[in-house]
Every structure is written in C-alpha cells, then in structure tokens.
Design a protein that fits this description.
Oligomer: heterodimer
Number of helices of chain A: 8
Low-confidence stretches of chain B: none
Helix content of chain B: over 70%
Largest interface: A-B, 28 and 21 residues
Strand content of chain A: under 5%
Strand content of chain B: under 5%
Mean pLDDT of chain A: 82
Structural class of chain A: mainly alpha
Mean pLDDT of chain B: 83
Number of helices of chain B: 3
Order of helices and strands of chain B: HHH
Number of domains of chain B: 1
Number of strands of chain A: 0
Order of helices and strands of chain A: HHHHHHHH
Low-confidence stretches of chain A: none
Helix content of chain A: over 70%
Number of strands of chain B: 0
Shape of chain B: rod-shaped
Radius of gyration of chain B: 22 Å
C-alpha cells in the first residue's frame, strides 16, 4: 500500500516502529547519495542520516508537518542542507578552520538547490522501480532491468529468461508505462 | 505486402546501433508506413523518459551499495574487536 508522506510522518510521530523503519529505508539512499555528492566521507553518512531523520521531530516533539506551508521535497531539502552544513561546521572546528572544508561549505551554498531537485527526481524514479519490482510480474521487471538498466541485448535477455524477443519488448513497454504512471502518482501524492 | 519493422530493429534504430545502410532503410520505411513511424516516435519518447533517469539511478544504486558494503565491513570489524 502506498503511504503519503504526511501519513507516514504522522505514524512515525505516533511512535510506530515499522513506520519509522519504512521512513528510514525510503530516504536512506537519497540521504547517502546526497551526502556523497556534497563531499562528505562515508564515515559521516550514518551521522547525517540520523540527524536528518531526527531533525523532523527534534525541534518540536509535537511537530506536525503542515502541507500548506510548502512541498515535502523543499522541506526535506532544507533539513538536508542544514544538516550537511552542520557536519561541515563540526568538522571545521575539529580541523581548526581547515581551508578545504571552507571551500566545500561555500560550494554547498552555491549548488545545493539545483542538485537537490535533480537528486529528488532520481529518488522518485528509484521508489517507482522498487514499486515495479514488487508489483509487476517478476519476468517483466527482470526483462526491463536487464535491457534498459544493464544495457543487455534483447536476444541475450530473451535467452536468459527463457522468453521470446518480442516478449522482452512487450515487458519493457509494460514496465515503462507502469513507471510513468507510478511517478506521476507519487509526485501527485507528494504533499504540496 | 509491406513488412513492418520489428521491435528489435526499432530499438537498435533509436539507440543508434544500426549500420548506416540499415538506418537509411528504416528511415525510408518510416516515410511509407505511418504505423511504424508512430511506433518509432513512441519508442523515442520512452527512451527519452528512461534516459533522463538511467544514469542517475545507476549512480545512486552503485554509490548506495558501495556505502552499504563499507558500513557492513566496518560493523564486522567492530564486532571482531
């Protein structure tokens, strides 16, 4: 079942442990990838993940996300940026104003928003791929993944999966249609 | 009766994997056959849709699995100590 961000946040706030895990698993790849893109080291990723997730509720334990005030994407983006900045600041203190870190923090200010919007789109696609893997017939998803994501030839995909070449293309089309609809659905359900 | 293009040919045409001569013959066929011309346009649309995500998705997946490996290794080392 698809859960909108506001429903999920509400469950997390209510202390639902499985919602908390789903919330973490849903945003972990996006957080890690964004951390990497902005020059944090792998040692920092778990720390970033925790402070980002906790930031939703730390400021105010009775926090309720208000969709009227803006998009969830922008809201999470602001939290990400602040948390990455905060890690840079702590590192800077530790490294006694290391020059290289100052430059990285400056670059974060200049480029964050554009990159964040790009990463967010990839994140939506990633979620739709996950939904396709769960909801489409196994062979359909495998055929699509091998052909389009792994660059295999249709004939090789057909023989690996024991299906005909036209079936490979039929499955490809079905998965693409699913992804288009699912991305539109997720974007539509994204709290505005 | 005119033979329609196969999906495999359209795939190779859109992905620019056909030799020049075959590419020309596909284009020629498209001028005569509205149905195939429409199928090629649709394939172009789908390819543009997937292409916009492909690189970022592969990158995100690979950096996520590298990071997971790194963290798992670290966890194993911690437990061994």
């Amino acid at each position: 079942m698809y859960t909108t961000n506001s429903e999920l946040l509400e469950k997390v706030r209510a202390g639902d442990e499985s919602a908390w895990r789903l919330f973490r698993d849903t945003y972990r790849p996006l957080i890690y990838h964004c951390a990497k893109q902005h020059g944090l080291t792998p040692d920092d990723y778990p720390e970033l993940e925790q402070i980002v997730l906790l930031s939703f509720f730390r400021v105010n334990p009775n926090f309720v996300y208000d969709p009227q005030k803006g998009k969830f994407r922008s809201y999470l983006g602001i939290i990400m940026k602040n948390c990455i900045s905060s890690i840079f600041r702590h590192k800077k203190l530790r490294a006694e104003m290391n020059k290289a870190l100052e430059i990285q923090e400056k670059e974060l200010d200049d480029s964050f928003e554009e990159e964040w919007n790009r990463e967010w789109k990839i994140h939506l696609f990633w979620l739709s791929m996950k939904n396709a893997a769960e909801q489409m017939p196994e062979k359909a998803f495998q055929a699509f993944e091998l052909l389009e994501m792994k660059g295999k030839k249709a004939a090789d995909v057909a023989s690996a999966l024991g299906i005909s070449v036209p079936s490979v293309y039929n499955y490809r089309k079905k998965v693409i249609d699913f992804l288009r609809m699912n991305i539109a659905e997720i974007s539509g359900e994204e709290v505005e | 009766m005119m033979k329609h293009l196969t999906d495999a040919t359209i795939d190779q045409f859109v992905k620019k994997q056909l030799p020049d001569f075959e590419r020309l013959s596909v284009r020629f066929h498209m001028t005569l056959c509205r149905k195939c011309s429409k199928r090629v346009r649709q394939y172009h649309d789908d390819e543009a849709f997937i292409g916009a995500y492909r690189e970022g998705f592969v990158k995100m997946n690979s950096s996520f699995s590298n990071i997971q490996d790194f963290l798992n290794e670290k966890e194993v080392l911690k437990q061994e100590q």
